[in-house]
Amino acid sequence: MNVNIEESWRQHLSEEFEKPYFMDLVAFVKKEYSTHTCFPKGAEIFAAFDYCSFTDVKVVIIGQDPYHGIGQAHGLCFSVNDHIDIPPSLLNIFKEIETDIGVPFASNGNLERWAKQGILLLNATLTVRAHQAGSHQNKGWEQFTDTVIQSISTYKEDVVFLLWGGFAKKKGAKIDATKHCVLTSGHPSPLSANRGYWFGNKHFSKTNTHLSKTNQIPIKW
After folding, report:
1. Which residues of the chain, if any, have pLDDT below 70?
2. What pTM was computed for the model?
3. Is the peptide bond between 88 and the residue preceding it cis, with omega within 30 degrees of 0?
4. pLDDT computed for residue 172 by the predictor
5. Which of 65, 82, 100, 158 is labelled catalytic?
């Protein structure tokens, strides 16, 4: 099956594209996009992989599914297009960055600048129907993204995995913590953050400390 994904990822995931569950997933997604408004745009479904090759991955952030509002999602978890208001969770991420390492608020919520530095911004589910959160869950995307995480854990070393909230922690259960840096905290959503489970986690300075220790270039957050 011809899936339009960046070449270094194709080398690790090509077998996945031939499995029955993935063929069923492709059929489901094609039907959804032809009969409903879905996000992100078809060309952006694999954007996280296009911006950050397998070779370049040094940090992984795991989200749940794409934003389901008009114009928000563009294939990178927690990220929105330039002209869109910064969502509450991302606002709390920026607040923690400012407190942690003194970097002032970004002017917009587009995180392409992170992805280009080697951060895989991976949603567990890569598509969604407009205004229906979770509408494409349990159709096969989760199995595919589990394979992505497993491949990174197996074939790379010293990657920083940022697991925010219970869902991401479960998603990262198979990561080999003996060869990677796994940082966990509550989710940056207001509900979690305002209960004290997010702010003060210092994940951004801790990430850069690990990258420096392992002779990798720190992230410009």
Report:
1. 1-2
2. 0.96
3. no
4. 93
5. 65
